[in-house]
Amino acid sequence: MAWIIAIVIVGLLVIWYVSIYNGLVQIRTHVQESWSQIDVQLKRRNDLIPNLVSTAKGYATYEKSTLQKVVELRNQLTAVPAGDRQQTMEVSNELSGTLRSLFAVAENYPDLKANTQFTNLMEELTNTENKIAYSRQLYNSTVASLNMRVQSFPSNLVANIHHFAMEKYLEVPAEEKATPKVSFDDLNTK
Amino acid sequence: MLYEQIAMNKRRTGYVMAGFGLLVLAVGAALGDVFWASWSAGVVGAAIVTAVYMVLMISNSTNVIMSMNHGQEITQEDQAPQLWHLIEDMAMVGQVPMPRVFIINDASPNAFATGNDPAHSAVAVTTGLLERLNREELEGVIGHEVSHIRNYDIRLQTIALALAAAIGFLVNFASNWFWWGGARRRDDDDDQGSAGNVIGLVISVVLLILAPLAASIAQMALSRNREYLADAASVELTRNPQGLISALEKIDDSQPMQAADPNSSALYIGDPFKKKRKLGDLFATHPPIADRIARLEKM
Q1: What GO cellular-component annotations does this UniProt entry give (chain A) (predicted)?
Q2: A11 to chain B, closest Cα gap in Å
């Protein structure tokens, strides 16, 4: 009798252990998946930028220096080592800000706004920007639930044994929802 | 909080089905009593009619509701890029599969969602909505509709709509029969009906008159609370209450819709017929917009 009870207890412990382990694996996969969602959008944006530059280039006075900065940041983004999520997002945030200011000044160029190719690109890029922001939101919430499991008892025991580590949140830029500040000085003097 | 809401909605769907089911059977009994002097035949008949109706409606609800509201499906992103992208965004952040997308040719800005569950859902918006709202406002509205999908409000509404339609069908059938042939029992009875029979007849007729009313009151009550919830859930997705607030203002400040089906009015984000209502009106499908905006402003 005592044997049977012992076997049942051990069996239950094994099942419990395995289910906690599997839960941790599952959530770690979710974190990776949500990162790759961000990554897809970043790549898409990188592909769109050359089109943007070649379309806007024809409008001679249109924010030459800003366009140049966009291209620089894009190249910088592709140069970031693949695993470095924090740095990738830092450069990406800067690129988002520059693109936003570029679109804001587009209001002052009626010719450019009438160009359907440009307005299509603007929609595509805005779409990508939004998807980056939303997939970052999703990433952070999955990271939050991973971190909670890694820290809380008893799943932290299993996490320690199998080296499940906490992940860092992706920081949301402070100016995210604020209106971009763009200077028109250099346009007026030319 | 969301999971509790989903569980509560699934439970509520059960209550609604049970309540409506009883109402349908009562209508059937009344019909049978008036026309065949046999309430049990009426109950069986009503059960069969409703079962057929439910199966037809639920197996094909999205298409039925969309055609009742003159929605045209779009299947390609480039037919309405901005709308398509926003629905993609909200589906992604709400973690539901991409719904089907429909456009209703109507100048009044409005939108609704329908379907049986998140994997079989659809969102419809009017051309007026696309013309008048900017991107942020549109995002708020789409967030609201995707929240209806996530909360299983769409299933609750589909079933309520199907049952209300079945009751409407039975009552219509009864009133046509009444005018064309008159009630058979009265012809055969040689005016010898006892007092008990007369009372039964009166109850039956009253029931037939009141049933559609009861069905619509229940449907409206269900819909009102879900609107507040979907507004809040939309802001949870977009993190931008201002977009939805100014969208609601624009939806409120417009002419009534032409293309909307009266039975589906509870589905829309704003009352499509703009009926003037008093606060707390039993038949209001929607809470007053000012009230919704006030709640959003507190966020």
Answers
A1: membrane
A2: 32
Question: Do both B165 and B96 map to the same domain?
Answer: no
- Same domain assignment for residues B284 and B226: yes
In a shared domain, residues B97 and B148: yes
- CB contacts under 8 A, B 202-231 vs A, are none
CATH number of the domain that residue A145 is part of: 1.20.1440.20
The answer to whether B170 and B118 are in contact (CB under 8 A) is: no
CA distance B160 to B163: 5
- Consecutive H or E run containing A25: helix A2-57
User: What is the distance of C-alpha B212 from the center of its chain?
Assistant: 14
- Convert the pLDDT of each residue in B172-202 to its tens digit: 777 777 666 555 544 444 444 556 667 777 7
> Could you give the residue numbers annotated as active site of B?
145
Q: How far apart are CA B70 and CA B125, in angstroms?
A: 11
Tokens standing for residue B58: 């639920």
Strands B111-117 and B120-126: antiparallel
Q: Which candidate in A48, A127, A145 is best for mutational testing of the B interface (most B CBs within 10 A)?
A: A127
Closest residue on chain B to A127 (Cα): B85
Choice among A73-82, A87-96, B52-61 with the minimum mean pLDDT: B52-61
Tokens at B224, concatenated = 């009102």
Say if residues B122 and B142 touch (Cβ distance below 8 Å).
no
Reported pTM? 0.77
Cβ neighbours, 10 Å, residue B96: 17
* Euclidean distance between CA atoms B48 and B190, whole angstroms: 32
Kindly state whether residue B39 falls inside one of the protein's structural domains. Answer: yes
| Residues B235-275 pLDDT 10s | 888 888 899 999 999 998 888 998 888 878 888 998 888 76
Confidence of residue A179 (pLDDT cuts 50, 70, 90): very low
The CATH number of whichever domain residue B246 belongs to comes to: 3.30.2010.10
Task: Using the structure block, give the residue that is written with the tokens 């719904």.
Answer: B99
Q: Which domain holds residue B188?
A: 2-63+155-209
